[in-house]
Specification:
The protein folds into two domains: about 55 residues, no CATH class; about 220 residues, MetI-like (MetI-like fold, Orthogonal Bundle), CATH 1.10.3720.10. Helix 5 crosses helix 8. It has 13 helices and no strands.
Length: about 325
């Protein structure tokens, strides 16, 4: 395991270097000049000297190679710089936004797993029954309905009609925990219902495949209770592809919750990425891409290690 972790650390560093390189050059391919956007309406009437002076102040007049080298050195030291549009230190911005996104993602995934794994097991065990039909039907609807449509439906029902929850917004956990979770519930349910459909289908197919394995028949022949056969033998081996899917979804949701965060006005990193791309705020875009890439690499490592815990036959030599 130690050898594997060392090897994986070197591979991860190489991947992070590629991510950092792409993060630096990709925003510069976007149309528009951040200097002119920063000047706003004054940009059309500003003198050439004023534009050049602002470009020098922002460091955008330096050669690309020098900007790239300086930026790499800075991020190695944890310095992502400052926003071009006066939002201050990017580190502080990330520390204020990233926990909100992680809270939204982790709560929604936890709820999705709590609902999906039992329903997937029941659908597999009672194959071709009404339970199986209901799970298949609901999961198909969950996959087919776009997340933004689901968000609007939940707002219409639970916020505008029943008035159980607020339609959107954010209150810090430290200021009022109860109100914080009231604002959190609708976006969490929106993402959880969407993820439930994927996880339930994966659980059903994985458990179905495992239930036909020889060792399951042997366990039954030994007289083990059916609940032990399913929960201790079948589910443990069926969890490997489910864990893979969960890991992939965490990585995807880190940058793909932009619609949910925007609809519910939740201040996370996905909505920040969209806002920064609209403004051409290069430093924030670069920092977000690097942070999201690093988190995805970390999640992949955790998923690989989890494989060995779930199945002792898997060795990392």
């Amino acid at each position: 395991m130690t050898t594997y972790l060392i090897r994986r650390a070197f591979v991860t560093m190489g991947v992070l270097y590629l991510i950092a390189t792409l993060a630096f050059f990709f925003p510069r391919l976007l149309p528009g000049d951040p200097v002119l956007l920063l000047l706003g309406e004054a940009g059309s009437t500003a003198s050439e000297e004023a534009i050049i002076a602002l470009r020098q102040k922002l460091g955008l007049d330096k050669p690309i190679a020098k900007q790239y080298a300086t930026w790499l050195i800075d991020i190695v030291h944890g310095n992502f710089g400052e926003s071009l549009f006066g939002y201050g230190q990017i580190q502080k911005l990330l520390f204020s936004r990233l926990p909100n996104s992680l809270e939204l993602i982790l709560f929604s995934l936890a709820l999705a797993c709590l609902l999906a794994i039992p329903s997937g097991i029941l659908a597999a065990y009672f194959r071709r029954s009404k339970i199986d039909l209901a799970v298949n039907l609901l999961s198909t609807v969950g996959i087919a309905v776009p997340v933004y449509v689901l968000a609007v439906i939940l707002i219409l029902i639970f916020a505008l009609k029943l008035r159980y929850f607020p339609a959107g917004g954010y209150i810090a956990l430290g200021s009022n925990p109860i109100e914080h979770f009231k604002y959190l519930l609708l976006p969490v349910f929106t993402l959880a219902l969407n993820q439930w459909a994927l996880f339930a289908r994966m659980t059903r197919s994985s458990v179905l495949e495992v239930l036909h394995e020889g060792y399951i028949q042997t366990a039954r022949a030994k007289g083990l209770a059916e609940s032990k056969v399913v929960m201790q033998h079948a589910l443990r081996n069926a969890l490997i592809p489910i864990v893979t899917l969960i890991g992939l979804q965490i990585g995807r949701l880190l940058g793909a919750t932009v619609l949910v965060e925007s609809i519910f006005n939740w201040p996370g990193i996905s909505s920040l990425l969209l806002e920064s791309a609209t403004r051409r705020d290069y430093p924030i875009i670069q920092a977000l891409l690097v942070v999201i890439g690093a988190l995805v690499c970390l999640i992949n490592c955790v998923v690989d290690i989890t494989y060995g815990l779930l199945d002792p036959r898997i060795r990392y030599d």
